[in-house]
């Protein structure tokens, strides 16, 4: 295990051999046969802006097949975004500002940051989510707004290498990502040619990728998937490992049909088919 391989932040660290695999997906919680609507996850997504409306839509569409209920919130002023969301999927529940407190109490997990603007209102939402003690996935703008002293054990951070360095002051390596998780107590999914996934006690790498996944929006898809799995009562490390593996495998499957010529929307649509194949052992 990673915790045995690294005795201190300055000691020698050998990246563990553990890699994400189909077993990570198959280890996820299964819905009970006696469960009812909402028992298998209620996710609240706070994301999007007038400039980046697509981020919220991609994250929500990635999440909608993997937990029971998806609540989405952006500014009430952004009526165009609200309209797009209703057209994108009738399964999404659009939450306006005057209803946010009601749906906040219902949520099993939160996703904040994709397509966000950095402003006072969103900073207040970020602080509120962190203090909730519920599972929180932070991506994109939320990572840039996050202060080191706000990092808690209930957070899953999904930075790319540049965001990791800005937040932790180090180049993203297996060693630095593991020690950042160990020191801060959070879970990290650091995206790159090889993803580094770490909690204070566990570490894995994921190498399922394809060059077509460099397109804008693939990170929003991954964040939405991570958050949906966390809302469905999986721990953050397991959610991150399973999501990273499935997201990459979906990209590889698309590459066999389209080469590199697929979009982030294609990727979100491919997730449930790829998940089913993994579950069937194929």
Short description:
The protein is 45% helix and 12% strand. It is of the alpha/beta class. Helix 3 packs across helix 10 (218-231) and helix 3 (53-63) runs parallel beside helix 12.
Overview of this structure, please?
With 282 residues, the protein is α/β, with parallel strands linked by helices. The chain has one domain (36-279): UDP-N-acetylmuramoyl-L-alanine:D-glutamate ligase, CATH 3.40.1190. The protein is 45% helix and 12% strand. The chain has twelve helices and nine strands. It has helices at residues 2-5, 22-26, 53-63, 79-88, 100-106, 120-131, 141-145, 161-168, 174-184, 218-231, 236-258, 264-279, and strands at 42-46, 69-73, 92-94, 109-112, 136-138, 155-157, 187-190, 195-198, 203-206. The chain has a nine-stranded mixed sheet with strand order 3-2-1-4-5-6-7-8-9, with helices on both faces. Helix 4 (79-88) links the parallel strand 2 (69-73) and strand 3. The longest helix has 23 residues, at 236-258. It is globular. Mean pLDDT is 92; it is low at 1-10.
């Amino acid at each position: 295990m990673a915790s045995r391989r690294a005795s201190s932040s300055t000691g020698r660290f050998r990246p563990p051999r553990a890699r994400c695999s189909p077993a990570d997906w198959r280890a996820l919680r299964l819905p009970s046969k006696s469960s009812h609507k909402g028992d298998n996850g209620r996710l609240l997504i706070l994301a999007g802006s007038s400039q980046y409306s697509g981020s919220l839509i991609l994250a929500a569409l990635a999440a909608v097949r993997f937990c029971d209920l998806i609540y989405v919130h952006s500014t009430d002023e952004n009526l165009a975004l609200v309209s797009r969301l209703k057209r994108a999927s009738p399964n999404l529940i659009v939450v306006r500002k005057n209803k946010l407190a009601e749906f906040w109490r219902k949520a099993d997990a939160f996703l904040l940051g994709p397509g966000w603007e950095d402003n006072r209102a969103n900073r207040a939402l970020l602080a509120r989510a962190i203090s909730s003690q519920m599972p929180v996935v932070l991506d994109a703008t939320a990572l840039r707004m996050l202060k080191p002293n706000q990092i808690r054990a209930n957070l899953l951070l999904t930075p790319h290498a540049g965001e990791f360095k800005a937040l932790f002051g180090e180049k993203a390596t297996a060693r630095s990502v593991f020690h950042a998780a160990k020191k801060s107590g959070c879970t990290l999914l650091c995206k790159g040619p090889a993803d580094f996934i770490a909690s204070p006690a566990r570490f894995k790498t994921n190498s399922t990728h394809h060059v077509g996944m460099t397109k804008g929006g693939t990170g929003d898809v991954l964040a939405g998937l991570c958050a949906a799995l966390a809302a469905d009562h999986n721990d953050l490390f397991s959610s991150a490992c399973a999501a990273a593996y499935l997201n990459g495998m979906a990209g590889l499957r698309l590459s066999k049909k389209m080469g590199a010529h697929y979009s982030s929307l294609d990727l979100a649509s491919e997730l449930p088919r790829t998940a089913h194949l993994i579950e069937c052992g194929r």
